[in-house]
Amino acid sequence: MEMRLEKSITVRKSKLHKDQTTIKLYVFSALVVVLLLIAVFASQLVPYDPYQQDLGKALLAPDSNHLLGTDRYGRDLLSRVIMGAQSTIFSSLLLVAIISVIGTSIGVFCGYKGGKIDSIIMRISDVFLAFPGMVFAIAVAGVLGGGIMNAVVALACISWPKFARLARGQVLSIKNMPYISAAKLSGSKPAKIIFKHLLPNMMGPILVTATLDIGTMMMELAGLSFLGLGAMPPIAEWGSMMSNGRSMLQTSPWVILAPGCAIFITVMLFNLLGDTVRDVLDPQTKK
Amino acid sequence: MSAVLEVRNLKKAYQKGKTEIVAVDGISFEINKGECLGLVGESGCGKSTTAKLITRLTAADEGEIFLNGKEITHVNTKELRDVYKDIQMIFQMPLDSFNPRIRLGESVMESMINQGMKRRQAKARAQECLANCGLSSDFADRYPHQVSGGECQRASIARAIANKPSLLICDEATSALDVTIQSQILKLLGQFQQKMGMSCLLICHDLALVQEVCDRVMVMFNGRIVEEGTPDEIIMNPREEYTKRLIDSVL
């Protein structure tokens, strides 16, 4: 009798917990979708032309006409923040997608294959990890020239080893689990073992690292933009907008706060979504 | 009687730093059709390595393995998949032997789908196998962490017998289970062995258990087979010093 009582309590707990994570998932994905929609339809949403300069309206404080104020060329900051969402979010997402896919593939290949190829590729990744990343990215971006796409390529060149290392570690720890042996004994081909048994069990940490990296990558892209190696000046991009407003922090703080808050909200949303996705993906935490 | 499995002079050594550890040191034995062979010995004596060598999960350094008269030591990966129709294994940790993200039914179906069976047929067959192992059909939709260790091991047996193998290797299949479940699992294995004429290699460290189910026992020590005979012979009249110690150590 007592055992039954205990069992019914655990069942109830698991239901509550599951519902909560699902609700969180819906809320955060809805918010991220809203953010993405704003980015996609940015040119339809902007109240003013984000590139229209009007020096007569330079550095206006936020009011009912310009909700977030104007910058030193009199451009409406709300319009620029909305427009900047497009380049900032999409370039960061593209960058994280590139490095996580390439890094994970290399890591899985090395971890699963082992042997000499593994050692060689891992030594190469050691070289990348040992070199100061930003300096190398500046060098690559300098060779490729300015432009946001070149900045993405430059950062992708230096950031893949992190994911390769992570994925390789995951593969090495999972590779010797009995269920992989069981899959081999079931006659599964290596591709099936990798995609059905390995990847789903190692995606959690990679997904979380990837979402946490969106913020870091946004900042690094902004850094390159600041140096003139990323987004070119007239283009609205949160990072470069912040760099532009840096000198006016004391006189007109809204110029730096508007894109800063945008980055803060975006990064936090992606992080929360990443954490929730991990909770949902991992059936063991549903207990 | 024809031998289902014949192992000749099998050797495997692991490199650990500069020293070489010989895990399996030139063992030879055979398993006849329908026979249950026990392999006992302390931990680290090479029992599990032997199982991995026979299933080709680890490559052997030397020696040959014949399955139903066919040499399988050097077959390529494609032919190896055919070999796995005839040879299956049950692992020690029931929970670890199932992918935590895949439902039990799906795991049981995997081997049949790999052999080219249609999904619906495979699903029906998987449920039949689970039912034969005493699990109702709703277990097929559960994840490994939602069932108990004993139930998981039953599912593991269902997966192993799905393709009707001629040889089943149980690598400490009951060690992680408590005593009552142990006997249930062994009974289940015995049933299948009789019904399907399957041979069985039972790797174990529990002599009493071996005595109950095995037709023949081999005692392994330091990578070698030191003694072989029927369970009663070995337990009543152990010839080797190590076997005596092993028997004395039973609680």
Automatic annotation (TrEMBL), chain B:
<keyword id="KW-0067">ATP-binding</keyword>
<protein>
    <submittedName>
        <fullName>ATP-binding cassette domain-containing protein</fullName>
    </submittedName>
</protein>
<dbReference type="InterPro" id="IPR027417">
    <property type="entry name" value="P-loop_NTPase"/>
</dbReference>
<keyword id="KW-0547">Nucleotide-binding</keyword>
<dbReference type="Pfam" id="PF00005">
    <property type="entry name" value="ABC_tran"/>
</dbReference>
<dbReference type="InterPro" id="IPR003439">
    <property type="entry name" value="ABC_transporter-like_ATP-bd"/>
</dbReference>
<dbReference type="GO" id="GO:0005524">
    <property type="term" value="F:ATP binding"/>
</dbReference>
<dbReference type="GO" id="GO:0016887">
    <property type="term" value="F:ATP hydrolysis activity"/>
</dbReference>
<keyword id="KW-0813">Transport</keyword>
<dbReference type="InterPro" id="IPR017871">
    <property type="entry name" value="ABC_transporter-like_CS"/>
</dbReference>
<feature type="domain" description="ABC transporter">
    <location>
        <begin position="5"/>
        <end position="247"/>
    </location>
</feature>
<dbReference type="GO" id="GO:0055085">
    <property type="term" value="P:transmembrane transport"/>
</dbReference>
<comment type="similarity">
    <text>Belongs to the ABC transporter superfamily.</text>
</comment>
<dbReference type="InterPro" id="IPR003593">
    <property type="entry name" value="AAA+_ATPase"/>
</dbReference>
<dbReference type="InterPro" id="IPR050319">
    <property type="entry name" value="ABC_transp_ATP-bind"/>
</dbReference>
